[in-house]
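Think of the structure tokens as a kind of shorthand, similar to the way a musician reads notation: each symbol stands for something richer, in this case the local conformation of the backbone. In the example below we present two proteins back to back. Begin with the first one, reading the sequence and then the tokens, and try to describe in your own words what changes along the chain.
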Amino acid sequence: MSFLIDGLQYANWSEKIFRQMREGGVDAVHVTITYHETFRETVLIIEQWNRWFEKHPDLIFQGRTAADVQLARDTGRTAIFFGSQNPSCIEDDIGLVEVMHTLGLRFMQLTYNNQSLLASGCYEDEDTGLTRMGRAVVSEMNRVGMVVDMSHSGERSTLQAIEHSTRPIAVTHANPSSWHMALRNKSDDLLRALGECGGFLGLSTYPHHLDGGSACTLQSWCDMAALAVDLVGPTGVGIGTDLCQDQPDSIVEWMRVGRWTKAIDYGEGSAANAGFPAMPDWFHDNRDLAGLRTGLRAAGLDETTIDGVMGNNWHAFFESSFGAQTARPVTLDRAAE
């Protein structure tokens, strides 16, 4: 049987959710531990996770390598891999990339919707691509074994990350924009480029990313998954639900606004729908993940491809992504003197 891996969740974590992971047979989850938090604030969140690991050792443990996915399967637990949806946790210090990796961070987005010190977000009017610091940080992430995640980044920035990175990058939670147009979803051309570089796409179940929103059907989502396989390739697609289970609506404000504005940014929602939208009726929590297999069969995918999408592809990506590599010199652009 294939592994069952979710490539992105940001839930309001609790014993109830950890038990649902086990009821659903989920082997590993990439969890967002930080958005706009500073380094010190992120460390405090890691301290909270350490308490959960101590309190629920029969349910969860911290994952650091791909081998931990097999360990989770063998011991009936779920491996938790840390990720950040913004580079705020490294502040303006490239040395904190390695520090965060040592603490267990395995994914980091270069942007969260807005321009950052590293790249342009998908909500900016102009996508200026990777910055000088962005190129240096990508190289450092490559060196230590931290995945470059471009889920909330603009198209030019993402294409430049693909080009600059010496290791395949990921879009952990988004869908093809040709299926549903959303600022976060990715163009067919970008997804083809992602596949050509060996990169990875995690397919989202978040309603703002779905054709029909909360009313999206399982068959429509699985037909979209088949489209993604055609665009990226059968070994480069998995699940990245973006599940925000049990979060209060106030968390949406923190995700979208952080500290960068005094106004309310409704993002992909509207003033009438400023909170979390209702999930589609076929996916509410981790117990529903395994049921996606039936829909993928109905969409015409073969069993090997389905096994890949359900988790084997993520596992292989973890194996090639989390280990350190020999550093290569970083050349900084500067005008001729």
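Once you have a description of the first chain, move to the second and do the same.
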Amino acid sequence: MRRPAASFLTLLAFACLPLAASAQRPSDVRARNPGVVLGQNYPNPFSPDTRIPFSVGDASGCKDPNRTYKVTLRIYNLLSQPIAIAIMQEGGGGVATGQPVENRQLTCSQYVAYWDGQYQVLKDGKMVSTGRPVADGIYLYRLEVDGFVVVRKMVVKAP
């Protein structure tokens, strides 16, 4: 009986609190941590894949182009279970595309990550696609930049 209650509390703590922060106007979020912006994924709803725009380090007015930020972008189900790590698709600073956005050192710039809408599992220390598409529904994507977290939601819809 304790397990469902604990899962619910975890969901509540993870899903509700960060969403409250991300529901604020973008200027409010920037005022607390300048330079971290998490855009809405597109298309949304989507099937089978989506892009997630984000920027770090005040990309429009970068004051220190040599500074790096530790960046992770993960996708979660509504039970707060990680199901995938986004893949870098575009970006400045000579960042390699096709690499997972997990503990990635990025300079101030705008970036676009990609998610193929498939479940991933941990294998040999790396997240690997299972080839299985996720079920229709609401998912959360969470950007962490040097410990600052922003969360948004996205919708997967069958074609």
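Compare your description with these statements about the second chain. Residues 2-156 form a domain with the Immunoglobulin-like fold (CATH 2.60.40.10).
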